[in-house]
Amino acid sequence: MDSTGIKAILGVKFVEESFGACLKNATQATCAGANTSIASYSRWEWAVAEMIYSIIVPLLQFLCAMVLADTFQYFTHRAFHVNKWLYKHIHSMHHDVYVPFAYGAFYNHPLETIPIDSIGFPMCLAIAGLNNRQAALFGAIWTFKTVVDHCGYDFPYNPCNLICPNSVQFHDLHHQTWGMKYNFSVYASFWDRALGTYWAGSDSKAQEKYARGRKVAEESLAKNRSADTALKAEALETDAGFSTAREL
Questions:
Q1: Do the Cβ atoms of 102 and 172 come closer than 8 Å?
Q2: For 12, what's the count of Cα atoms within 13 Å in the CB-facing half-sphere?
Q3: Which residues have a Cβ under 8 Å from the Cβ of 49 and sit 6 or more positions away?
Q4: What gap in Å lies between CA 46 and CA 75, rounded to an integer?
């Protein structure tokens, strides 16, 4: 007896056929319901729903992530400056970079990098509801802005200025010895403006201090060049003396 006969005796064949028919009917009903549901919405309604899901919601998530990350960064950064122990033993390492440059953007103490960049920052993105791809894009934008803010050059048409006007000057001022109590934010400047720690780099007093600093630096450079010239002249005279002694 073949397998078909055995299935017929045991009633398995009947069960299989019945189950297959039910599954087919259920699938058809589901597809019909889906088609009816789709047909009940107009094109513009679908377009609006897609725009909300694909554009508006991600933008709101990015905005929320920026607010959360900037809030976390502002208060932790300010704490590193207010607390003398934290500044002396941890954050002062970053401010060893007196003249900002791109690679100095992430020149930080491990006890600053780990809790802020490796733990706090991802937590803010997770709370904002960003998925992995969104978080990677946000992190890339954040890294780009951080490097540009520390490069020491205000590029024309800098896209970071859309978030924080005069972005490079804003953070460069913070790295000056006379500006370390201002401009603690990383992305936008709303917390600095709200809590009185905002100082625009274009302010007349700031420009005076910049001019004074440039003058001191130029004078120091001139002195160093004069000293180098004198040392070179002395070295040449010494070499000439040795040459004369050899000839004698």
A1: no
A2: 7
A3: 41
A4: 43
Quick check: 128 and 65 in contact, CB under 8 A?
Answer: yes
pTM: 0.68
Can you say how many angstroms the Cα of residue 58 is from the centroid of all Cα atoms in its chain?
17
Dist. CA 119–CA 111, nearest whole Å: 11
* Residue 54 to residue 1: CA distance in whole angstroms: 61
Tell the residue number behind the tokens 């905002």, with chain if given.
Answer: 198
Continuous segment of H or E residues that includes residue 101: none
Tens of pLDDT along the chain (248 residues) come to 544 554 444 444 444 455 455 545 555 555 555 455 555 778 888 888 888 888 888 899 999 999 999 999 999 999 999 999 999 999 999 988 777 777 788 888 999 989 888 899 899 999 999 999 999 999 998 888 888 888 877 788 888 778 777 788 888 888 888 888 999 998 888 999 999 999 987 788 888 888 887 787 787 878 877 777 767 766 666 665 555 555 55
